[in-house]
Amino acid sequence: MTPDTIYCGDSIRLLGEWESGCVDLVFADPPFNIGYVYDRYKDDLPDAEYVEWTRDWMSACQRVLKPTGSFYIAIGDEFAADIRIIGRELGMHLRNWIIWRYTFGQNMRVKFCRSHTHIFYFSMHAKEFTFNDHLLRFPSARHTEYQDLRANPQGRLPDDVWDEFPRVCGTFKERTGFHGCQMPEALLMRIVMASSDPGEIVLDPFIGSGTTAVAAKRAGRRYIGIDLSDEYATHTRKRLEQVELADKAGESDGWPALHIDMLAQLYRETKVTLANLLPNEVALRVVTASLSARAGHEYSVEEVAAQFERMAARLQIPKLPNDVPFVARSHVKSEGKRYVRRVTRYRGRRDTDPQEREAV
Length: 360
Ligand SMILES: C[S@@+](CC[C@H](N)C(=O)[O-])C[C@H]1O[C@@H](n2cnc3c(N)ncnc32)[C@H](O)[C@@H]1O
What we know:
The chain has 360 residues and is of the alpha/beta class. The chain folds into two domains: 5-249, Rossmann fold, CATH 3.40.50; 257-313. Helices cover 41% and strands 16% of the residues.
């Protein structure tokens, strides 16, 4: 096993060839067995076969994890309970059953809209594991609402429901375009920061578009990625090269691109609009302390406030829900009626029961 490599092949076979206990952190986002179309994998096994395969790859990952290692697994509703049970059977310790709640889920007509994925966080040992709480903190409501000086100046830890990572949609700059299940880099950055230290080895046995490797590399960890598809592996290697080039070239006003991305993510976690955050020195101090910890560089409150202003001027501040003033779009007036007619005709072709039609 060579660190900083993207392997092409079957995870169970490759992991079986490696020495045991050589990896510090595993993040796995396997196919969910929901009939998704991948380059080389057929995502519709019979349920029992899928569960058996899940057990096999989970124990292959467990074998290469160090006794102090951590194991995160993303999975859909259909097999979440199986993962929990297999984790227990393999003797791993469940630390959190995280819900990643996202916007832009799928709209349903005859059931509630699905807008989450499960992320299991297991540790190999009950008490000995890495958890870098100082790299995860952000201002609490005590800071943002009450400017309470008694609140922990380092901020608070995230909940186990994560709603600060939007899904990577087609229009996002981050979107690579060659893989339909790309995870957000910021989400992987949280996991990598939480459960590994610089220089440690992060393994993703289903690397897909390469997100885990990108987060690990940017955070100064070493990565190993595996995918069945030669095409995905090749694209991932290119993505990693581009990240390196962008990070090297990405100094803006003396700020590395990575630190600007980290500040943008902290803003998302704080969930307070810039108009309310900038005058609130108590909250800004927490943002500054947290950014300094994540970036490994001491920033001052003034530097952070000035960077926020520059990001706002360049439209680099992420949107919070309902954060922008409503502006009526001119095309609604001119095109609206025609558009509604077109959509109704289109839906009418597929709907058998008009009663169940969604009225959005
Ligand atoms: C859900 S995607 C992972 C997406 C990834 N987390 C990302 O952010 O892009 C699952 C990936 O597992 C790969 N895969 C399926 N079976 C595999 C196997 N036996 N060994 C290695 N990779 C496999 C598929 O090709 C697919 O790219």
